[in-house]
């Protein structure tokens, strides 16, 4: 048997990129002990889910009627038993339903229990929406702080500062109330010295924000770094990482996310907002007994919280629900779908009420296009899909190679220095180019924008000829010098974003990948869109344009190409399809652009899958060795259960416990000499007939409690798991009955069961282990870790890369 309890020492020595394990040190105990208690005191009522007689001595009856704190709970870095948790919840629900007919108070309790899930979703939506609004407002202000300050009030960002100004529309960004650092320090903003001073202040602020972020993460909440989505996927599959969704992680992640985004690093806040929302869900679960005491029910709540996180990140409630279903959730019943929808709705409504951007929209880069697209434009859209797939595959391979290097070399020991160097390089390269100097969200907003008459951006500096203007729609026009300058700057920005994001994602600060990926695609899309627009303008008589693009008409919308490119690159990196398209059309409000988005998203997924099967989150899960059994992968090998089970040939025999012949000392010796998570219980060593399965944690807690509270329990006391005590001489010490902690219905398969069926059982039932029998006799055991190692071995990967149980 190979399911070993994961020891604290080996945890501290590992070097994970997503959860900063290598610099956790002593602070880990601080975050674990305080953030997410192991529910020891709360599980008393549910110590057994499969019954078991209690017909022993009266002393034994008294002892077992007391709640056993901790029995039925799980240790850190272990997998939950979904079957046991669901069975407990059914037992609890049956008890409440039967009691509801007895009294009015019990009926009220039954109604409140049924309503508690919806109330919890309401609280999650309100809290997630409020935190998202706070993060948006703070990040907007601190991003502008790098360039200057508002004299009317330092707490105003550039846009809010200039709202009351009397400047003309074209000079709206140059209001007297807003002063750059050079104007504030030396009195004027023109000239080489003023430029150098602004450059210096920009770099200093960026370094200050990023250093503060990494020091807070390192000092208070090591789990607050990264995007959090790989870990949330693993937690939702049943793995326990205590403290990962706790209150310290929530506080530090919220603060450092603002700092990291404001520093100008090539990262986004959208992925970390999912982590923040899941922290809110986990903390609020403690208000309701139903969710506090049951790990499976809690994971249903976390699935809904993930939907609320995406809802506030993109202003896309339906896209959030689909993202949770498609990308992060492991178990997603219909009830969770409805509750996810409600949580996403409340979160979006809360953020809309806060109105962080002052434009009555939930995101900075909301756009509306009204021009129809032509069928021939599908060709450039598919080209953007191919680019997105190639970029996604390139990014995943490069980023994973860099993160692996960080794990295996001394680089991982200096997270603060790494953040300092990457921030310094980013800031020094970003300032000279206005498209990299602005925040990435503002850049995407500008790239998505469809040029109007009043637009003063370089991207809209066309040669104007208004004789052919019809209504508000501007015709395709010849590009002016500003457009050509913008094209060069955007090309340089594209090269910088492509490479700097590889080194940024996975550093020890909160870092999302949605926004940088969308920026890469939006730049590529805008470049292609402007090229197509100029081609149509100068060659409208070509056969490909003649049928639908006459001279003086508005044929090509470059902003639409930017949007399609953004979707393609995001799809190439994450391999999202349905949820991605819905998020993009909720962002843009354009239902008529679903087909171009679908074509680009599907093409990017096909191209990226042809190069490498894994999305970025699955790749990080594998890199960190999390025990995640991917439900989307098919198991096609012809192996049997006997090929995977432990013990193998030449291994020591399987460690078992007999049902009524072992003493307390015998079992304590087994516990001390092995590190397994549980033990099969058999009739006798000779017969090897299976009785059940008992967990190590439950055994330790029960024996310790019995030694303290039950008279006469000594090292020579017999432990029995049967209904009736075995016959012993009168002089024998008191016996200890532990039938209540025995799982009488462990999952078993025969040694000839094909592994594809075993893998399906593990995936669909969420098992921790499965016992293997032959002609009714116990042969061995298959744990989730054995299954993962077997799959890794068949894929020619290192089976020892699976770190946790």
Folded structure, characterized:
- Helix 30 (755-765) links the parallel strand 9 (748-750) and strand 10.
- The protein has 31 helices and 11 strands.
- Helix 14 (317-328) runs antiparallel to helix 24 (578-588) and helix 16 packs across helix 23 (558-574).
- The strands form 4 sheets. Strands 3-5-6 form a 3-stranded mixed beta sheet.
- The termini are close together.
- With 805 residues, it is mainly α.
Give a short synopsis of this structure:
54% of the residues lie in helices and 5% in strands. It has 805 residues and is mainly alpha-helical.
Shape: elongated
Strand order of the largest sheet: 3-5-6
Based on secondary structure, the structural category is mainly alpha
Query: Averaged pLDDT, please?
Result: 83
User: What share of residues is helical?
Assistant: 40-55%
| Through-space gap between termini | 12 Å
Q: Give me the oligomer status.
A: single chain
Output the radius of gyration: 30 Å
Number of helices: 31
Number of β-strand runs: 11
**Share in β-strands:** 5-15%
Low-confidence stretches: 1-65, 468-472
Give a short account of the largest sheet. Answer: 3 strands, mixed
Name its key features.
11 strands; ubl conjugation; cell membrane; mainly alpha; elongated; CBS domain; single chain; 5% strand; disordered N terminus; 805 residues; nucleotide-binding; three-stranded mixed β-sheet
Task: Produce the secondary structure layout.
Layout (H helix, E strand, L loop, with lengths): L7 H6 L13 H9 L22 H8 L16 H18 L4 H42 L2 E3 L7 H4 L16 E3 H6 L5 H29 L8 H8 L10 H16 L7 H16 L3 H4 L2 H20 L2 H12 L5 H21 L23 H31 L6 H16 L3 H4 L2 H9 L32 H24 L9 H25 L4 H4 L11 H17 L3 H11 L5 H18 L4 H9 L16 H4 L12 E2 L3 E2 H10 L4 E5 L7 E6 H14 L8 E3 L15 E2 L10 E3 L4 H11 L3 E6 L2 E7 H11 L11
Parallel strand pairs: 3-5, 7-8, 9-10
Antiparallel strand pairs: 1-2, 4-7, 5-6, 10-11
Helix pairs in contact: 5-10, 5-11, 5-13, 5-15, 8-10, 8-17, 9-26, 10-11, 11-13, 13-14, 13-15, 14-15, 14-24, 16-20, 16-21, 16-23, 16-25, 16-26, 17-20, 19-21, 20-21, 21-23, 23-25, 24-25
């Amino acid at each position: 048997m190979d399911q070993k309890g994961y020891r604290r020492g080996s945890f501290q020595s590992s070097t994970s990129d997503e959860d900063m394990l290598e610099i956790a040190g002593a602070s880990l105990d601080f975050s674990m002990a305080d953030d997410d208690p192991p529910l020891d005191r709360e599980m008393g009522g549910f110590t057994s889910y499969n019954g078991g007689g209690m017909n022993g001595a009266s002393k034994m009856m008294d002892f077992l009627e007391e709640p056993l704190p901790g029995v039925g709970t799980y240790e850190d870095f272990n997998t939950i038993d979904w079957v046991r948790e669901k069975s407990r919840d059914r037992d609890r629900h049956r008890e409440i339903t039967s009691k509801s007919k007895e009294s009015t108070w019990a009926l009220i309790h039954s109604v409140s229990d049924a309503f508690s899930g919806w109330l919890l979703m309401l609280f999650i939506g309100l809290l997630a929406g409020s935190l998202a609004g706070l993060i948006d407002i703070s990040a907007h202000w601190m991003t502008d702080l790098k360039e200057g300050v508002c004299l009317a009030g330092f707490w105003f960002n550039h846009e809010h500062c200039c709202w009351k100004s009397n400047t003309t529309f074209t000079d709206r960004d140059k209001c007297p109330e807003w002063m750059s650092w050079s104007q504030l320090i030396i009195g004027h903003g023109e000239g080489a010295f003023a430029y150098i001073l602004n450059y210096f202040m920009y770099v200093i602020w960026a370094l200050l924000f990023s250093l503060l972020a990494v020091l807070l993460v390192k000092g208070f909440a090591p789990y607050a770094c990264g995007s959090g989505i790989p870990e949330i996927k693993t937690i939702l599959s049943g793995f326990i990482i205590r403290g990962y969704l706790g209150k310290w992680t929530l506080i530090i992640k919220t603060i450092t996310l603002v700092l990291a985004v404001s520093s100008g690093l090539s990262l986004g806040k959208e992925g970390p907002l999912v982590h923040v929302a899941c922290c809110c869900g986990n903390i609020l679960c403690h208000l309701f007994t139903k969710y506090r005491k049951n790990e499976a029910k809690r994971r249903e709540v976390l699935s809904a919280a993930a939907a609320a996180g995406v809802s506030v990140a993109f202003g896309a409630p339906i896209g959030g629900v689909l993202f949770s279903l498609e990308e992060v959730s492991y178990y997603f019943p219909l009830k969770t779908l409805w509750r996810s929808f409600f949580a996403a709705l409340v979160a979006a409504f809360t953020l809309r009420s806060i109105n962080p951007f002052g434009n009555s929209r939930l995101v900075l880069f909301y756009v509306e296009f009204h021009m129809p697209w032509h069928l021939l434009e599908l060709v450039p859209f598919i080209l953007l899909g191919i680019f997105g797939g190639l970029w996604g595959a390139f990014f995943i391979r490069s980023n994973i190679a860099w993160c692996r290097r960080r794990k295996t070399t001394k680089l991982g020991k200096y997270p603060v220095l790494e953040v300092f160097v990457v921030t310094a390089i980013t800031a020094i390269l970003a300032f000279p180019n206005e498209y990299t100097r602005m925040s990435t969200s503002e850049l995407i907003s500008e790239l998505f924008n469809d040029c109007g008459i009043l637009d003063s951006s370089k991207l809209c500096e066309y040669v104007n000829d208004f004789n052919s203007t019809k209504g508000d729609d501007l015709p395709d026009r010849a590009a002016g010098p500003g457009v050509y300058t913008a094209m060069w700057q955007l090309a340089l920005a594209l090269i910088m974003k492509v490479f700097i994001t590889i080194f940024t994602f996975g550093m020890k600060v909160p870092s999302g990948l949605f926004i940088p990926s969308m920026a890469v695609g939006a730049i590529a899309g805008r470049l292609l869109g402007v090229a197509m627009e100029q081609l149509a303008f100068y060659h409208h008589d070509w056969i490909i344009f003649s049928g639908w693009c006459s001279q003086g008409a508005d044929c090509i919308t470059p902003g639409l190409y930017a949007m399609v490119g953004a979707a393609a690159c995001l799809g190439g990196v994450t391999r999202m399809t349905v949820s991605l398209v819905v998020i993009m059309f909720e962002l843009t409000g354009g239902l008529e652009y679903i087909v171009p988005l679908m074509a680009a998203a599907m093409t990017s997924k096909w191209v990226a899958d042809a190069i490498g099967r894994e999305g970025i989150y699955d790749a990080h899960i594998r890199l960190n060795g999390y025990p995640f059994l991917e439900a989307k992968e098919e198991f096609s090998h012809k192996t049997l259960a006997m090929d995977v089970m432990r013990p193998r040939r030449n291994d020591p025999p399987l460690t078992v416990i007999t049902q009524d012949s072992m003493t307390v000392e015998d079992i304590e010796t087994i516990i001390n000499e092995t590190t397994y998570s549980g033990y099969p219980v058999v009739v006798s060593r000779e017969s090897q007939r299976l009785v059940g399965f008992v967990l190590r944690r439950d055994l330790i807690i029960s024996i310790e409690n019995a030694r303290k509270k039950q008279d006469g329990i000594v090292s020579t006391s017999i432990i029995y798991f049967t209904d009736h005590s075995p016959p012993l001489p009168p002089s024998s010490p008191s016996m200890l009955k532990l039938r209540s902690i025995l799982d009488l219905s462990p999952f078993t398969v025969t040694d000839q069961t094909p592994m594809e069926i075993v893998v399906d059982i593990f995936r669909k039932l969420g098992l921790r282990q499965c016992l293997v029998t032959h002609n009714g006799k116990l042969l061995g055991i298959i744990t989730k870790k054995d299954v993962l190692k077997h799959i890794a071995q068949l894929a020619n990967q290192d089976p020892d890369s699976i770190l946790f149980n």
